[in-house]
Amino acid sequence: MPIRIPDALPATSILEGENIFVMTEHRAMHQDIRPLRVLQIMRKLSNTPLQIEVDLLRIASHKSKNVSADHLETFYRTFDQVRDLRYDGMIITGAPVETLDFESVDYWPELVEIMDWSLTNVHSVLHVCWGAQAALYHHYGVPKHNLSEKCFGVFENRLIKPSSPLVRGFNDVSMMPHSRNSETRYEDIVANQKLEVISYSDECGVSIAKSTDSKHFFVFGHPEYDRDTLKLEYDRDVAKGIDIKVPKNYYPNDDPSQDPIVSWRAEGQLIYTNWLNYYVYQTTPYDLGTL
């Protein structure tokens, strides 16, 4: 089933070119069903048996360097525009600020307000990469720690709790891309009885965790990455003269002259599909006013 997007969103043709089922607002208006309402991300939400209505949220207190102001104004909403709404699910993504103290990030106060709002206005929240670190710190007091060397590549993960519906369909060992300069440590997470670790990598630590009440989910890697995402990041830094190692387990024989191999796509899709199915669709109230 499709994701529902604005009629003129430029990404429509890109998504359709990747065999991602999208539905414009005009077409969706003629279907008599209630779609799930989700804030933020699109690509991995499409291959599910559910119609999903997506709102894109931007931080008003931060000026983006990579996306035009006109694009943001046209397709993204500010928190003030959604604060009176309720959502089945929300995804809070990462940002390249993981070496900074949380309070030093210029939009931290606004993000804190959004995270607090989500406790009463969103049924289930999925946090990705720095977004996961930020939520664990704010909601549960779990610290992050800067790494001496960037966690950069595609890493093997073991299931710590294979019975979790979040990882239903996963192999015992799976792969996930990571690109970060900080970590949230296993011992800090499990020290809080309200949290549990689902998946762990011997090379780069916790990959997936969640709250025991299934309100919050934390993914520390990037299961949504495309084939060339790590390549583009690596090539960019090399061009800038930044001392960066070749991403591990990404190129054949770690040779950046060869085409990258995708080894994470299946489980990467399952994370989003399982979250939507088991923790949003099957548990959210039909009337969001009862959240």
Notes on the protein architecture:
About 10% of the residues have low confidence. Strands 1, 2, 3, 4, 5, 6, 7, 8, 9, 10, 11 and 12 form a 12-stranded mixed beta sheet that branches. 27% of the residues lie in helices and 26% in strands. The chain is globular. It is built from 9 helices and 12 strands. Strand 6, helix 5 and strand 7 form a beta-alpha-beta unit. By secondary structure, it is an alpha/beta fold.
Level of helix content? 25-40%
Biggest sheet descriptor: 12 strands, mixed
Number of strands: 12
Average pLDDT number: 82
Distance from N terminus to C terminus (CA atoms, Å) equals: 25 Å
Provide the gyration radius in Å.
Answer: 19 Å
Q: What order do the SSEs take from the amino end to the carboxyl end, as H and E? A: EHEHEEHEHEHEHEEHEEEHH
- Specify the oligomeric state: single chain
What is the count of DSSP helices, taking H or I runs of 4+ residues? 9
Q: Would you identify the regions where 5 or more consecutive residues have pLDDT less than 50?
A: 18-22, 26-33, 41-47, 66-73
| Global outline | globular
Secondary structure category: alpha/beta
How much of the sequence lies in strands comes to 25-35%
Outline the secondary-structure elements.
Blueprint: E1 3-5, H1 11-17, E2 22-24, H2 25-28, E3 36-39, E4 52-57, H3 69-75, E5 76-77, H4 79-82, E6 87-92, H5 108-121, E7 122-128, H6 130-140, E8 145-159, E9 173-183, H7 186-190, E10 195-201, E11 205-211, E12 216-219, H8 229-239, H9 265-281
Parallel strand pairs: 1-2, 1-4, 3-4, 3-6, 4-5, 6-7, 7-12
Antiparallel strand pairs: 8-9, 8-10, 10-11, 11-12
